[in-house]
Specification:
five-stranded mixed beta sheet, about 25% strand, alpha/beta, homodimer, three-stranded mixed beta sheet
Amino acid sequence: MLALNKLYVVGIGPGAADQMTVRAMRALEKCDVIAGYGVYVELVKPLLPDKEYLVTPMHAGVYGMAGLIYELSEGKDVEIEVIPGVTAALSGGAVLGAPLTHDFAVISLSDLLTPWDKIEKRLECAAEADLCMAIYNPASHRRADYLRQACQIVLRHASPETVCGVVRNIGREGESMQVMTLKELADYPADMFTTVFIGNRQTKIIGGRMVTPRGYRDV
Amino acid sequence: MLALNKLYVVGIGPGAADQMTVRAMRALEKCDVIAGYGVYVELVKPLLPDKEYLVTPMHAGVYGMAGLIYELSEGKDVEIEVIPGVTAALSGGAVLGAPLTHDFAVISLSDLLTPWDKIEKRLECAAEADLCMAIYNPASHRRADYLRQACQIVLRHASPETVCGVVRNIGREGESMQVMTLKELADYPADMFTTVFIGNRQTKIIGGRMVTPRGYRDV
């Protein structure tokens, strides 16, 4: 039996300890029990080996935990503190160059909790608005062709030559990135460790990096 | 004359030293010269008083610096490393509760470098797609009624009762937050230290916090 009176929801960033904020590390140090998705728990354990750990089977990782905690705590006597971290849109973007320096949307392709037609609508509107996009959960075993479907929706409004990029294992061992066109992205074999970036009409390649300018040089 | 061979573009987060990543602090420690917008330079100076500082008159803050640096360095012999930080969408969101736990868009209302009709189009599409929004640069002296205009666009697709929130001085002295309706937001006197959050159709108030659920409890 666990008596909770203070619950921290901690964004740990992409994984490497030095990409966590000082505030996040201090909160983890204060905890008696640390609970999380297996992959994330394994990242934290070496830093704080003496804690009690609970591994949960949650599929969705950080994309949604804070909201869930507020919902579950409704009417309960527990203080909640959300400690933000560097989300994959930002950490992956920094690996690729500077793809999200202007307006952007973050969209998950997981239809586990969202109807696919709502995801399609969001992709369509974001493309129509010429928003850069960070795509989370681009694929899983069960959803092998979702990224292709997403690209086909974006292609209704964007050129096949639109600059895109993928980052795998952000901030972790085996980190890699690749810049490609939207047409090539449709055939890219993404997996659950991939974060995908779709540029807007201004996005270009500079020195091998994916860069979305804001127009400063034209002012 | 400054001879550059390595340039770090560092996201310092909202301001408090403990909201910076360890990696960001280490990069700043390695620098001979630290350049930035006045407000941000003043936040870093007390932490590293012995550095040389350059204050630049850039209006747009972090929203766009990395892209600019890549553009200006094109063809020059300089290594660039972008170090991501906790952007206001995440740090402000954590103060309000959990408004961005699902798909969202980040949109700036500054028309200094973006035509206003493009900003309107993005607001319209994001609202149509039922995306939560983080609004950067909601107002300035010159753009006193932009937030009202933005709310009127969103109101074409969203209920006046949509849950919204504002955070001022995130992570800094005088931090404050307020949860309100979209109708109330249209009249809110935002300033340049305010980050604005507009919920989607699911966003609700739990214990005074702004929370967007992902539907876990219905699974």
